[in-house]
Specification:
Radius of gyration: 30 Å
Number of helices: 18
Strand content: 5-15%
Order of helices and strands: EEHEHHHHHHHHHHHHHHHHH
Shape: extended
Structural class: mainly alpha
Oligomer: single chain
Number of strands: 3
Length: 409
Amino acid sequence: MPYFSFKGRNARGELITGTLEGADAGVIADQLMNTGVTPVDISASQRLAAAEMPQWWRRLNRRKVSLLDLMLFSRQMYTLLKAGVPILTALAGLQESAVNPTMIEVIKDIRVSLDSGRELSSSMRRHPDVFSFFYVSLVRVGELTGQLENVFLRLYTHLEFEKGIRESIKAAVRYPIFVLCAMAAAVVIVNLFVIPAFAKVYAGFHAELPLLTKMLVGFSNFMVRTWWLQLAALVGAAFAFRAWIATRAGKYAWDRWKLKVPIAGKIVLKATLARFARSFSLALQSGVPVVQALSTVAQVVDNDYIGQRIEQMRDGVERGESVLRTAVAAGIFTTVVLQMIAVGDETGELDSLLREVADLYENDVQYEVKTLSQQIEPILIVGLGGLVLVLALGVFLPIWDLGKAALGK
């Protein structure tokens, strides 16, 4: 269907502009009137409808909705709803201004769903890959309490915090991964190109080689002969690993192991707990009951191991236990955090104290990330030094004896 650009006035007399899709100008006028906008001008737009593009081309160019796209959507929804703009009109404007084609399709589907009589939360639930269960649950609470615009503002703040946590985790693991990859590349190059060249030199003198050199030459020969097999095994292992962590048991084991990795594990743990505290605080602040809030947060912490501990907390609260007691039984919180939860549980200000817990963990994560290079450099230096020592001794020890070998001694 074609697109039409429109200008209209809302109930306050403010000028509203945008683009809508419809069969003709009359359909567009009806859509505007249904949303409380009086059309002033409607004209055909030259914009190409996404539906007119070939299906294969749309799939090829389909972009995932990023966290930044969702942040902009939440912030703009808060601004428009606070200004008194009807939801359908706000969504029409966001559809026009969105850059990501996938986000445009999602907003368009939400508008169609709203036109058919569904609620906003129900319309968003149709897109679980874009709007998480936590996001939809808070929107539902905002609809029931009449505080939808405030919920979108809180969601924006939460997503901003989530983005910072993810960037901190990526920064924490980027440096060690880069160094390890560089070391692995060096080992491959040395074994495929350097050692074979020295091995030819050694073979010409028919000399007895040191044990370390024999081991290096043997390993190098093995890599040269079976490099394609090793590469295939590496690719197969990568696919097998991805398939394993896609299972529930594999994801649980992997998430649990990540928390035990030296140095980086504690950063991942603190970041995950900061995400839990911020999400739990936001849910309670928005009026979600404790049991439902724990159920919701367990699905958004992005760690199955921590998620199961949170579900255990929920089960304890359902049995009538306090949040503090269930948090102690979970065994994942520090003493300071448990003390703050205890105060919040007694004073009824658990949501505000949980925000402080999230801030505490977030500051710890930022500090750990800043000092990560200082913590990991000694380990990397020792590992790199050991690798260089083995290669140097294995390659150059026979050279020291080449004089004797040349003289036949």
